[in-house]
Amino acid sequence: MDKKKPKKVFVQGAIPPEKIANSVANHQSKTNIGAHSIFLGQIRADEVEGKTVTAIDYTAYEEMAEKVFHEIREVAFAKFDITCAHIYHSLGKVKVGELCLFVFTSSAHRKIAIEATNFFVEEIKAKVPVFGKEIFEDETHQWKVNK
Amino acid sequence: MKVTIKYFGLVAEAADKYEEVLELNGALIASELKAQCLNGLSIADKDSVQIAVNQNLDDTTTIKDGDEVALLPPFAGG
């Protein structure tokens, strides 16, 4: 199984919507799957003290992040009966309305896939050393913190 | 002993650098090294900064020669 191999998670810039369609298409030959669950994180135009966020510039401690992504995968495969799981996260500048996180899990049945996707998203937000600089329209910035 | 310090996000911005090699004398635990590195930096909430030693979050580890240390502000993935 390919599930044990560390996979490349980071992509430079926004995740193109076509990647989601292609990922779905790539799983149509896997007929033991009965349910896919997808989470897509999109950059929101937050307003802070009258200024609007136009983009987030992501950086990461990449070596540690790849290790933590792998550990989260290992736990998820032990915890949930999923057939596969894919994670993609942006690095660099992602504009509002664009996608920065794509989590895709598949299982025989819906509940497991949905729970697994939720697990991945919560773990990623809590444990992966990714940092986000929220850039406003006047080129000033603030640092994003996950809630 | 020599250790590599990596700075990220708002910590890198406050320190105005991404990486440096420090020469340290004597035994030091990670929390002490963190305080030493953050001393004098303009960071509002220093408690929110975590230290990773060789990619593990543990501020009680004793620092050894050749360690890679990272100062990590709050995570913001997703």
From TrEMBL, chain A:
SUPFAM superfamilies noted in UniProt: Molybdopterin synthase subunit MoaE
Domain of life, source organism: Bacteria
Similarity annotation: Belongs to the MoaE family.
Species for this entry: Flagellimonas aurea
Lineage: Bacteria, Pseudomonadati, Bacteroidota, Flavobacteriia, Flavobacteriales
Pathway recorded for this protein: Cofactor biosynthesis; molybdopterin biosynthesis
EC numbers on record: 2.8.1.12
Name this polypeptide is given: Molybdopterin synthase catalytic subunit
Keyword terms of this UniProt record: Molybdenum cofactor biosynthesis
Reactions catalysed according to its record: 2 [molybdopterin-synthase sulfur-carrier protein]-C-terminal-Gly-aminoethanethioate + cyclic pyranopterin phosphate + H2O = molybdopterin + 2 [molybdopterin-synthase sulfur-carrier protein]-C-terminal Gly-Gly + 2 H(+)
Quaternary assembly: Heterotetramer of 2 MoaD subunits and 2 MoaE subunits. Also stable as homodimer. The enzyme changes between these two forms during catalysis.
Entry-linked InterPro entries: MoaE_sf, Mopterin_biosynth_MoaE
From TrEMBL, chain B:
Family annotation (SUPFAM superfamilies): MoaD/ThiS
Record Pfam families: ThiS
Coiled coil: none
Domain of life, per lineage: Bacteria
Name the UniProt record assigns to this protein: MoaD/ThiS family protein
Protein's organism: Flagellimonas aurea
